[in-house]
Amino acid sequence: MLASSTRRALASSSPSSTITLPSFLLPAFSSSQSPTKRNFSATTARPSKLGRNPISIPPGVELSIGDLFVKKDVTTYLQQQQRTVTVKGPLGSQELQVPGFVNLDLDQDTRRITLSVQDKDQKKQMEMWGTTWAYLNNFIMGVSEGHTAVLRLVGIGYRATVEPRPEKEDYQGQLFVCLKLGFSHPVELGLPKGMKASAPLPTRVLLEGINKEELMSYAANLRKWRKPEPYKGKGIFINDETIKLKQKKIK
């Protein structure tokens, strides 16, 4: 009833007369387009702090970029494009799978490679920009200089040796890191292929390899047998790892 009477009143009014509406009704009757979408943050998209820096290729290292291919993944129906980057150096070779939206610009004259992404507004691409840069940089350093990790054994009676175990070898000539950590049996863990280990001191283990991820994963498997405890400071420490000591519990 009210709506029909309002329409009749508007139709009977003369063209010369003007109708003024309250301010709170103006947005409903306005014929302009919908307002622009406002972002949650007013800051502009910034490039990756790591990804925007070019990577220098040292002498003796060769880097080749493969063509795009579709990776088949049973966990998703989406087609994921990737390319293979092969890094060869004096210490060996490694292959890195790079997402298709990461662009690689290789300059042979200056021996530098620059990474960029196709769309900086997508979160996934921004995340993989710096991650891919870090992986590629570790691969280049691994085949040219190699990666190392030092394990420190802190505790009374803790000892480490590197010995062969022919009855447990996964491949010919495999060495095992043998740790005495206060258990009734020694802890023996075989070295992966391509990794080296030595014990310059009874409480030190030096690990060497070209794959940093594999190297630190092996060091973590050794560390989990005696994680550093905060009361006496005993345990296995990796590189410059430290722990803050707590006061002794008093009952």
UniProtKB/TrEMBL annotation:
Skewed-composition ranges (Polar residues): 36-46
Pfam families reported in the protein's UniProt record: Ribosomal_L6 (PF00347)
Domain Large ribosomal subunit protein uL6 alpha-beta, chain residue ranges per copy: 80-146, 178-236
Region (Disordered) residue spans: 31-53
GO MF, any single term: rRNA binding
UniProt cross-references to InterPro entries, sorted A to Z: Ribosomal_uL6-like, Ribosomal_uL6-like_a/b-dom_sf, Ribosomal_uL6_a/b-dom, Ribosomal_uL6_bac-type, Ribosomal_uL6_CS
Database matches in Gene3D superfamilies: Ribosomal protein L6, alpha-beta domain
Any one GO biological process: translation
Keywords: Ribonucleoprotein, Ribosomal protein
Annotated GO CC locations: mitochondrial large ribosomal subunit
Family: Belongs to the universal ribosomal protein uL6 family.
Protein name stated in the entry: Ribosomal protein L6, alpha-beta domain-containing protein
Organism for this UniProt entry: Podospora fimiseda
